[in-house]
């Protein structure tokens, strides 16, 4: 017959670690979790060191207002050459001159004709950037077409100092063989306006 169960024996010593098992396959990526609550605002960081003081800029030279107006009251029948000079003192070699003529101009002829009015600077026409001029074209049906006209523009590359600005009349470029009857000024006062201005933007 089977006897009674005996008492448990003492616990044995821990055995050596077994060899590492084979790594299983990577599991499927889980679904994206819900967005967590916004975290607390962090503390303000410490103030950084002050940067080095920049170098003081050089003081620029302000251009003072420099302008002049020459006026006369006469009807000038000159067909070519100088009509009026106006002297002007220019302060800065890097500035430009703005010149303008305003008054009546006309031309008289028995056939088609053309006269040209233009500015000169110390005897030369402007080359920076181009000449400053205006023309009047006429034909017999519109004899003596007196109208108020204005001719103006800017001239660069003129040295500082005394500048003689002339208002002149001559033939148009395509009508050089004949000098026509030009008429400058009539009843009203003629004006040449001159102003020194900063050089234009490039």
Describe it.
The protein is mostly beta strands. It has a domain at 66-197: Jelly Rolls (Sandwich), CATH 2.60.120. It contains no helices and ten strands. The strands form two sheets. Strands 1, 3, 7, 9 and 10 form a five-stranded antiparallel β-sheet that branches.
Write the layout of secondary structure elements.
Layout: E1 66-72, E2 81-90, E3 96-108, E4 113-121, E5 124-125, E6 133-138, E7 147-155, E8 161-171, E9 181-184, E10 190-197
In short:
Helices cover 0% and strands 39% of the residues. The protein is built from no helices and ten strands. The strands form two sheets. Strands 1, 3, 7, 9 and 10 form a five-stranded antiparallel beta sheet that branches.
Give the tags.
5-stranded antiparallel beta sheet; Jelly Rolls; 202 residues; 0% helix; mainly beta; 39% strand
* Mass-distribution shape: rod-shaped
- The topology string of helices and strands comes to EEEEEEEEEE
The CATH architecture of the domain at 66-197 can be given as Sandwich
- Oligomeric status of the shown chains? single chain
Global structural class: mainly beta
- As a percent range, the share of strand residues is 35-45%
If helices are DSSP runs of H or I spanning 4 or more residues, what is the number of helices? 0
Number of strands: 10
Helix fraction by DSSP (H/I, runs of at least 4): under 10%
């Amino acid at each position: 017959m089977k006897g009674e169960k005996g008492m448990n024996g003492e616990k044995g010593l821990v055995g050596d670690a077994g060899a590492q098992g084979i790594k299983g396959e990577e599991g499927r990526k889980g679904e994206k979790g819900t967005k967590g609550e916004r975290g607390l605002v962090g503390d303000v960081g410490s103030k950084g060191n002050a940067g080095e003081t920049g170098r003081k800029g050089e003081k620029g030279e302000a251009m003072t207002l420099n302008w002049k107006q020459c006026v006369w009251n006469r009807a000038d029948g000159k067909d070519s050459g100088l009509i009026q000079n106006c002297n002007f003192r220019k302060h800065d070699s890097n500035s430009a001159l703005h010149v303008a003529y305003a008054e009546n101009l006309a031309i008289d002829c028995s056939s088609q004709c053309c006269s040209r009015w233009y500015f000169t600077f110390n005897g030369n026409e402007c080359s920076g950037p181009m000449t400053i001029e205006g023309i009047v074209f006429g034909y017999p049906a519109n004899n003596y077409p007196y109208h108020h006209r204005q001719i103006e523009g800017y001239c660069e590359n003129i040295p500082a100092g005394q500048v003689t600005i002339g208002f002149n009349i001559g033939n148009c470029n395509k009508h050089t063989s004949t000098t026509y009857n030009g008429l400058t000024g009539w009843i009203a006062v003629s004006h040449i306006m001159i102003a020194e201005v900063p050089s234009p933007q490039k």
